[in-house]
């Protein structure tokens, strides 16, 4: 089991994080596991008659190996209850 940090990240700490680190941070703030996040994103995707993602994609985003596509950014932001800009990603002009 990993140890808890000495303190919570400040706004400046979050501003210095990479998009992958921000995804990981906001997921942990909500106490979501990767499968939990996948489930939330799939529920949201169903409202758009679209598809969700799988756990491997979440892992790739968090490690910085890949960046979410514009549609996935939107789902991710909704599932994490933040804006796409909060994730450090460019917005999708087709979603608000």
Structural features:
single chain; globular; 434 Repressor (Amino-terminal Domain); mainly alpha; 96 residues; 5 helices
Break the fold down into its secondary structure elements and pairings.
Layout (H helix, E strand, L loop, with lengths): L10 H6 L2 H11 L4 H14 L7 H8 L7 H11 L16
Helix pairs in contact: 3-5
The CATH architecture name reads Orthogonal Bundle
The low-confidence runs, each spanning 5 or more residues with pLDDT under 50, are: none
Q: What integer is the average pLDDT? A: 87
How is the biggest beta sheet arranged? none
End-to-end C-alpha gap: 38 Å
Count of individual helical segments: 5
CATH topology, what is it called?
A: 434 Repressor (Amino-terminal Domain)
Rg, alpha carbons: 13 Å
Series of H and E elements: HHHHH
What proportion of the residues form beta strands (DSSP E)?
under 5%
Q: Specify the overall morphology.
A: globular
Q: What is the total number of structural domains?
A: 1
CATH class assignment:
Mainly Alpha
Q: Helical percent range? A: 40-55%
Structural class: mainly alpha
CATH 4th-level superfamily? lambda repressor-like DNA-binding domains
| Topology, number of strands | 0
InterPro entries: Cro/C1-type_HTH (IPR001387), Lambda_DNA-bd_dom_sf (IPR010982)
Domain HTH cro/C1-type: 51-87
Organism: Dactylosporangium maewongense
Protein name: HTH cro/C1-type domain-containing protein
